[in-house]
Specification:
The chain is mainly beta. 3% of the residues lie in helices and 42% in strands. It has two domains: 4-87, RimM (Elongation Factor Tu (Ef-tu), domain 3, Beta Barrel); 99-161, SH3 type barrels (Roll), CATH 2.30.30. The protein has one helix and 13 strands. A seven-stranded antiparallel sheet has the order 4-3-7-1-2-6-5. Strands 11-10-9-8-13-12 form a six-stranded mixed sheet, with no helix packed on it. The chain is elongated.
């Protein structure tokens, strides 16, 4: 399991006073402000959310401590924000998990044939996608993160079942 979880990503600067757009990846999007100090992917930068207001589903305008003007805010664009896993609420059952828990799991077909490993979960807005790195190398492939395409997630068993769409010739 991942030691840190990506909970948000800083977007574009908003206005002239140093505010930024912030996309929350948490189940309760507004909870991102309650997890304390957020850190960059490399762990070298820390951010405190001073104020947060929603502008649309999962997207907020945030004021971050120490960010005083638009130029400073613009330099933060696309920084992913992480928190230690132990600051997040525990999962309540086997059907609940963090996306980070899936990265590295084996991907197998419904009949058990190894397809590869989960390399990432992507959130593009229209629905999440699971990226699979094939065992034999080559280009990764993606499937929708839906019950039809990923009918089984077995974290204790270290695998997910993937139903690949039928590819036309």
């Amino acid at each position: 399991m991942a030691a840190r979880i990506c909970v948000a990503q800083i977007g574009a600067a908003h206005g002239i006073r140093g505010e930024v757009r912030l996309r929350s990846f948490t189940e309760n999007p507004g909870a991102v402000a309650s997890y304390g100090s957020l850190e960059s992917e490399d762990g070298k930068r820390h951010f405190e959310i001073e104020a947060l207001r929603p502008i649309k589903e999962g997207i907020f305008v945030a004021r971050l401590a120490g960010v005083k003007d638009r130029n400073a805010a613009e330099r933060l664009t696309n920084i992913k924000l992480y928190v230690p896993r132990d600051r997040l609420p525990p999962t309540e059952d086997a059907e609940t998990f963090y996306h980070a828990d899936l990265v590295g799991l084996a991907a197998v077909s419904p009949d058990g044939v190894a397809l590869g490993k989960v390399s990432a979960i992507h959130r593009y807005g229209a629905g999440d996608l699971v990226e699979i790195m094939p065992l034999e190398g080559g280009e990764t492939f993606m499937v929708p993160f839906s019950n039809e395409a990923v009918p089984t997630i077995d974290i204790p068993g270290g695998r997910i079942v993937v139903v690949r769409p039928i590819e036309s010739e």
